[in-house]
Sequence to fold (485 residues):
Amino acid sequence: MRLWLDAMWAIMRRDAILFMSYRAQLVSQFLTPLFSLVIFYYISQLFTPSSVDSPGGYFGFVVVGLVIVQILTISLGVMPVTVRQELVSGTIERFLVSAHGPVNGILGAMLFPMVNALFSGTLMLILATLFFGLPLEATAGLAIPVALLGTLAFMPFALFLVAMVMAFKQVSSASGFIVTGVAIVGGLYFPIALLPDWIEWTSEVQPFTPATDLLRHLLVGTPLEHPAEIELLKLVLFALALLPLSLYFLRRAIRYGQRTGTVAEY
Amino acid sequence: MPVLEITDLYHRWKGPKPPVLDEVSLSLRAGEVTWIGGRNGAGKTTLLRLAAGILLPQRGTVRIGDLTPRHGGNHYQRQIGFLSAGDRSLQARMRVSQQLDYWARLAYVPRERRRELVEQALGQFGLEEFAQRRVDRMSMGQRQRIRLAMAFLHEPSVVLLDEPRNSLDDEGYALLNEQSERATARGATILWCSPRGEDRVIDCDAGYSLVDGKLERVV
Fold:
């Protein structure tokens, strides 16, 4: 277990070194959320939608959605690209020939994007509070364990995409499609109640809606439609059901590539 | 006593082509160096990748004792040191010492030996003075030394080398030979593949040529 943890730490440290070595990336990661906040702050000044039942008005409502989009973009969007880069640069070969193995290696490669996503989401909330007067609730601290649980529930989607990269080599359009789709059916920019009835059911079959609802409740005091325990249970169940399934698909995709020889292709 | 046992290995790439490996069998013994040559595309790299567990056999087996790549898990990989052809598989923006430490951790080198083995590998391949230099600022020959250092660092019992002389100068080649000798002296076996007739310049115990998917003994 100690050696496993050491290897995981090594991968996370590697990715942190790579990230920090591109300084412009650091600046853009700070500026991009700031620009998003500016846009949505002024949009929220234009109108007061009656369908948004949130103490911070539409700005308070959408900020939590933006935080989740930020987390999804970094975790879901970055992971398949990262693994594709590993294939192209041949560094995935190190995982394949190492005692740590390719599945652990890929899981390790998800750590830094996840930590970075959580950090980036927190930064966005701080900016919204400092510069735009977002009124944070006293329960905001509880959002941290919920965000971690939400990240665990989101992780399988990134693993599915990575499995597709291992099998088909290129899925950049799929990750963009998923993030945009989640933004619609997860109620990230507007309340789900505004969606047509025939599509509303989609908000019940993925973990993004309960995670968003819980985070909104804890951060800005938006009332919950279902009791908090039910929303938490949904997140736990999604994580428990989808994580093993996504790991199974990843293993299968790698094995397929190892047998056909395509694991070394890009 | 064989360390690595390859039996009836068969591999065919997609499409209407003959198999690249056709019932290939090979025993690599402790303390020996085995060379395999053959023209470009003969299947040397495929054979090494199968031995390393990067690819899984379509037919036949690859074993180290009771361990196979599919069922031995990390115990099999701990025995393998692998150098791929080309200049890939390096983390470009890491420093040389970071790169070796990273590999030592992936290879599950115990904590108490990690620093010692990293420093040893730096010394063995003449990399001490570049330890703090970023990998993407190194020459091709220096990068090849880093890749070789990773293949030997964790003291594997099977060292698989695909065109190890690539970009090496005379000093680098001498260091490679020195480390090969040191590895065989501690009981490791080395499988060295290259397209040129290196059986004439390296001190190998057995030499083969891979022709039409079959191994032909030449030394």
